Amino acid sequence: MVIDVHAHVFPRISRQESRILAGAGEPWLRDGMMMSGEDDYRPVTPELWDAQARLSAMDRAGVDVQAVSSTPLLFGYAADADRAADWCELVNERVLAHCAQDPARLLPLCQVPLQDLDLAVAAVTRAKAAGHRGVHIGNHVGPRNLDDPQIIEFLAHCAREDMPVLVHPWDMLGADRMAGYMLPWLVGMAAETQLGILSLMLSGAFEKLPASLRLCFCHGGGSFAFLLGRADNAWHNRDIVRKDSPRPPSAYTDRFYVDSAVFDPRALRLLVEVMGVERVMLGTDFPFPLGEQEPGATVRDCPDLGEAGRAAVLGGNAARFLGLGA
């Protein structure tokens, strides 16, 4: 079975409905265009909002199952928390309806008003009861990284609810220096993802979080795998790096998953060596142009994976992560 853990949806949301967010982005969909208020944000194809177009694309690509998460533009973290809670309810209902077109193949992930602990916790519990299979969050809320005490408590709640968490980079740092060439996506996303991972490691958060938490970072963990040696070296040689973490960063690679969206078999080989083959899952960033255009091609072309390794990355690990067949 081929399971894609990183696939996005932007359900049909009207301009009027987007006003729930009251100036905080106000994303909506108009004639194949993602909108932010009155501004065009990005042109998109029907696979992003039309379930039958999505399923047809999956058939052509040989993908059996997708874990379907909202487009990060929809997070609503900049809004007032009560408005964001109402917004997340709307988005989550639409994602459920989208996935109901084929619930065996389309697994909905909810989003939450992560800016407020109580509202976020309640949203997860409510979403699980409604049929969502996991949670999709950004890697930070304003200046608060994943090691923020309230976000740690939120992650602990997800573990108690047995809801896996997919972490996606968004609102990239240094945007004023990355105006062209999609550099926020090419540079900022990798840095944001590494920042999210290291914030959990070096803060000691993984020592506090339940081992049962299932956590996955998109985009191959960003630059984390390539720079893990640098982080370990800093931990061993600088007390200000290791002051809150009893173990070096490399000791925590068994506490989370990453997807395979690195687009180069050589990079995937390193990722598997760093994380272990059981911690890497197929992720394509469907259906965006910067995603993997031939789902699973990088996995199939990766040297040294072997038949069992390829099967694990293409679907076996995701089945465990998502609790399929449990």
From TrEMBL:
Taxonomically, the superkingdom here is: Bacteria
Q: In which pathway does it act?
A: Secondary metabolite metabolism; quinolate metabolism
Give the family from UniProt: Belongs to the metallo-dependent hydrolases superfamily. ACMSD family.
Instruction: State whether it acts alone or in a complex, and with which partners, per the record.
Output: Monomer.
User: Amidohydrolase-related domain spans which residues?
Assistant: 3-324
Q: What class of enzyme is it?
A: lyase
Name of the protein in question: 2-amino-3-carboxymuconate-6-semialdehyde decarboxylase
What keywords are assigned to this protein? Decarboxylase, Lyase, Metal-binding, Zinc
Query: Key word Lyase present in the record?
Result: yes
**Lineage summary:** Bacteria, Bacillati, Actinomycetota, Actinomycetes, Streptosporangiales
Entry's EC annotation: 4.1.1.45
